[in-house]
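Weekly modeling sync, notes
Attendees: S.R. (lead), two postdocs, one rotation student

Agenda item 3: backlog of single-chain predictions. S.R. asked that every request posted to the team notebook include the full sequence so nobody has to chase files. The rotation student volunteered to paste the first one in as an example of the format we agreed on. Action items at the bottom.

Example entry:
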Amino acid sequence: VVEGVGQHGCEYMTGGVVIILGPAGINLGSGMTGGLAYVQRDSLSDEGYHREFVRPAAITEHEEEWLRLILRKHFRLTGSPRAARLLTAMAPLPLLRVEPLHLPCPIPQTWAATQERLEKREVVSLGPPDKLRAEGFLVRGEAAGG
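Predicted structure, as returned to the notebook:
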């Protein structure tokens, strides 16, 4: 989760997921061949993304649930006012999925790896390890239950 990006955000991205809560800059997704980006509708103009590589799409209900979970954790760890505004609005999240046009692997495979990590409650890095452990996450390199 990032609060915004400048020019060429997600350039040459090959996997993973990024959630952009603020400005998305211009030329988003140039060279993107994998992964997913979630951006606010109003921050993605027609000229703001690289049409040869990516396309915006509406998010599904499943994605909205997942995004809300991540945004709640982001807010707890950072106190982000942007995350707070999105979570307290009584409306669907104003986010779009930005996905590559030319995928070396299908989106369900990209999601599968992310979902597996979430089910294990494992993260690579969202903050100090002590704070993550207090939230019930596994910190990379640690065994479950220990």
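Discussion: group reviewed the output briefly. Residues 61-78 form the longest helix (18 residues).
Action items: rotation student to repeat for the remaining queue; S.R. to check formatting next week.
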